[in-house]
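Task 17 of the worksheet. Students: predict the tertiary structure of the chain below and write it out as structure tokens. Keep your answer in the requested format; marks are given for formatting as well as content.
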Amino acid sequence: MRKRARIIYNPTSGREALKSDLVSILDIIENAGYETSAYATTAKKHSARDEATRAAKSGFDLVIAAGGDGTINEVANGIAGLKHRPKMGVIPAGTTNDYARALKIPRDDSVAAAKVIAKGNTVKMDVGQAGEKYFINIAGGGLLTELTYDVPSQFKSLFGYLAYLAKGAEMLPRMKPIEMNLEYDGGIFKGKASMFLLALTNSVGGFEQIVPNASLDDGKFTLLIVKATNIAEMLHLMALVLNGGKHINDKRVIYVKTSKLIAKPVDNKMMINIDGEYGGDAPMTFKNLKQHIEIFANTDALPETSITSGRTAAEITAEEHFVKEVQEMHSEDVDGNGTINEVRDN
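Model answer:
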């Protein structure tokens, strides 16, 4: 019996350029051996998620998310909770396309992205679970993580990444740290922080230096806690990010690997960002589902360190040792005046 593929595409993504390439995309996937059909998402809430679930339960072998990071998240949510999950493909057509960037999938050429799927190389990707929701790239809490869902969708479409930069500049002057209680593998952070980020890939908001050694399939999140408390400190950390990811060695940052995270607010409300959208309020528990969805990727272009399969035990142990050393560097308070405290259970 011939395999079947369902393309779930957002007709409004990427200045609507995707629609003009749809016939070519269908032809490429058909020639790769799949009986292929397409579904255009609607304004109905969870349109992409529900169609992905329907396709999976109907026995489709491949579900392709064509659109921005939001569409990709919806499709992943549609299959992540199922016992039998089809393979997943990604054709980016959004603003930042973080997930496609991490998988080295062409972000400005949907036809070339379809050819990556046709080539047939896959990675069994980790998936994050936050309550009843799933995420594939990043979750976070704190003021700066409100940035992506504070940018109206029409501005994302019209102005692309410039919209994020403009909103970020607007938000920096009112940035204030909040009290957090974060429990992760081997430690607890209690104190003031501007934000925390929980990453599954190395691409965050278009930057690959924020979590430079993130692995796609090791069953661990990369947790970044930013303890900077004012604009000057944040700007300095941003400079370190751009200078080769040197921020991970800064005392104002905690940088660790963890398979889970329990995030609790202390005094203030803490909004949670899941893959660029509002995902509810803390308290929230995050779990890493190791190698949960098999996704087509441009594996020839992926860094060797981003995939654990094929790496020796010695190489993985060396990386874990490096992470542990970084973790131990952050065992002291930032300023020593008691405003930021960190308790570790080693």
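Marker's comment: Residues 154-166, 311-319, 329-346 have pLDDT under 50 and may be disordered. The first strand starts at residue 3 and ends at 9.
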